[in-house]
Design a protein that fits this description.
Blueprint lengths: L1 H17 L1 E6 L5 E6 L4 E3 L3 H8 L7 E4 L2 H4 L2 H10 L19 H6 L4 E5 H7 L2 H7 L3 E5 L6 H15 L2 H25 L5 E6 L10 E2 L3 H8 L3 E2 L8 E2 L3 H7 L3 E6 L12 E2 L3 H10 L10 H4 L3 E5 L9 H11 L9 H12 L6 E2 L1 E3 L3
Parallel strand pairs: 3-4, 3-5, 5-6, 7-9, 7-11, 11-13
Antiparallel strand pairs: 1-2, 8-10, 12-14, 13-15
Helix pairs in contact: 2-8, 8-9, 9-14, 14-15
Pfam family, one: Peripla_BP_2
Keywords: Signal
Protein name: ABC-type Fe3+-hydroxamate transport system, substrate-binding protein
Length: about 350
């Protein structure tokens, strides 16, 4: 009995020695004080980033998450569950965007920290006060904005939450270096900016899908040296008038997709997707009404990209992808798809197989 008591004291001492009170400033400039590394965490968004930065062991401390964003990439989710079956046992807390997010369930899970995306925090409104009144530390991160500053800050914050500050600093530095290298090469070359249009191709050829203004793919294409034709008309995401796309006459078109779509000719990309099938779907967009007059179509400069590779610390490879698509000679040395897979090999316990970028040019 004495031995058991001594072991209990030792365990408590070790826990206390590893956890210490820290204060972080989140992406909204809010000072949040909590014991780090956190012992009970709810991941509201960016679940794959949380594992990449915090390591797989970080999920030993995850007591809840908004699982839908991971399950939406069904093949990716299944790959992780096959590797780590306990992921499917983590309680789901609902969705903020469909108003199924359960404050009561979150409180009942008794987390130390609730990590939310910027948009989730803002959408929850007064519910944040209820969560904080229950003693839950709410920390906001943001990869959706697609800015270097927020990508780096979010990565550093996850590093603190998980006790992986050094790993986070390395990942953030690698991301920043990729963007800075591309930016410097563009500045030195001083070439005319090609016009670029990006569309989420889930709705197929017959219906114009969502495009992106100053965040997500819109921000990536702009930072990679493009003149985003959607920016003057769409702030965040939305649909352009079909005539506007034709009138803007983009030099490069990127159609993004997940592993599945809403219709038979949806753009599909991602894990388990054959490159020939992805290219066939992409080819179909050349037949869209009115698009035959667009420069990108005339010159066969249509590209496909995996929609799941955006708004994440993994998307440094997508900067390379857009840069090479728009300036093929200037960035001929880059291999974006390999860079994407290399991140998995270096920082995650699984590596997907499939098609994550595709072109009609080769």
């Amino acid at each position: 009995m004495v031995k058991s008591f001594v072991m209990l004291l030792f365990t408590l001492f070790m826990s206390a020695s590893w956890a210490g009170e820290v204060t972080v400033k989140d992406v909204l400039g809010r000072d949040v004080t909590f014991n780090a590394p956190a012992q009970r965490v709810i991941v509201g968004f960016y679940p794959e980033d949380y594992m990449a930065i915090g390591t797989e062991a970080a999920y030993d401390k995850v007591v809840g998450m908004s699982r839908y964003i991971w399950e939406a990439r069904s093949a990716n989710w299944e790959m992780y569950v096959k590797h780590r079956p306990s992921l499917q046992d983590i309680p789901a807390i609902g969705r903020v965007d469909t108003q199924t997010f359960s404050v009561e369930k979150v409180i009942g899970l008794n987390p130390d920290v609730l990590m939310l995306a910027d948009w989730q925090y803002k959408a929850l409104g007064t519910d944040i006060e209820r969560l904080e009144s229950a003693g839950i530390k709410v920390i906001v991160v943001d990869y959706n904005a697609q800015t270097v500053e927020r990508h780096v800050k979010s990565t550093e914050i996850i590093g603190v939450i998980t006790g992986q500050e050094k790993r986070a600093a390395t990942i953030a530095a690698e991301y920043k270096k990729t963007v800075e290298t591309i930016s410097k090469r563009l500045a030195d070359a001083n070439l005319p900016e090609p016009k670029v249009y990006t569309e989420f191709g889930a709705s197929g050829v017959q219906e114009l899908g969502f495009t992106f203004g100053k965040n997500m793919w819109g921000a990536i294409s702009t930072m990679a040296g493009g003149d985003n034709i959607s920016a003057p008309f769409v702030e965040w995401w939305g649909k352009l008038n079909p005539e506007q796309v034709i009138a803007s006459n983009p030099d490069v078109i990127v159609i993004t997709g997940y592993e599945t779509g809403a219709v038979l000719d949806s753009m599909i990309m991602g894990q388990g997707i054959d490159k020939a099938e992805a290219r066939k779907r992409l080819e179909g967009y050349k037949k869209r009404l009115g698009w035959s007059s667009i420069s990108a179509v005339k010159n066969n400069r249509l590209y496909g990209a995996y929609h799941g590779a955006c708004r994440t610390i993994l998307d440094a490879a997508m900067f390379e992808f857009y840069a090479k698509a728009m300036y093929p000679d200037l960035f001929s040395d880059l291999n974006p798809e390999q860079a994407y897979l290399d991140f998995y090999k270096k920082y995650l316990p699984v590596t997907p197989e499939g098609t994550f970028m595709v072109s009609l040019e080769n």
